[in-house]
């Protein structure tokens, strides 16, 4: 297992009781929380590889919905097959600083074969289709005046960004419209450059970690260079924002340790980044 895969299954489980409910939305089991009556807009979450079983993800959805402005959908884009939490005490310790290297690496070795099999079941093509099919159905069912924002973490960051591509626009009421109106991507992994970012039609806010060993910090400058080159050729590029997190270890927006002041700041500031961006664009 390479270092990027290893980092994807490390972190901390957070305490708290999720307040939303799971129900079927556009063919996917979806955690739903927030204003169902007259929301200002819809926020769609695409999580890391742990999906619905990881409490952190639902608690993040709850935080987005807390203001009463938003309706938050957190679909199980893995269709009941997220990376399991069977080895949670090894892979997602309460305090990673207290975990011995022996415990960590023996746990990872035991986890490697099933994780690699999981990867073969979630290849890019089918994974992309599940996401875009959901978003197409949501866009068609959503009133014209209501906007949709999408936030993706780690694995989900790639597909959140792709939701804003020109190639994924659809026809609705005689007009070409994007699947979403704004995107936030936090420590987005497995990006294919330039394809995933070159022809975006919606504003995107990125969050990069300085010490992220799965998503190299150099990705930030590569994305910026792609957009600068597009502008130099006269192409219109929507507004792009890049925020930097220190220490910003992988998973900083989801699985950071809230008892560590630096990691807690990353958790809190990434939440602010998402809500500020959507407050501006949706």
TrEMBL record:
GO function term, MF aspect, one: hydrolase activity
InterPro entries linked: AB_hydrolase_fold (IPR029058), Dienelactn_hydro (IPR002925)
Domain Dienelactone hydrolase: 29-280
Pfam families named in the record: DLH
Protein's name according to its UniProt entry: Dienelactone hydrolase domain-containing protein
PANTHER family: DIENELACTONE HYDROLASE, DIENELACTONE HYDROLASE DOMAIN-CONTAINING PROTEIN
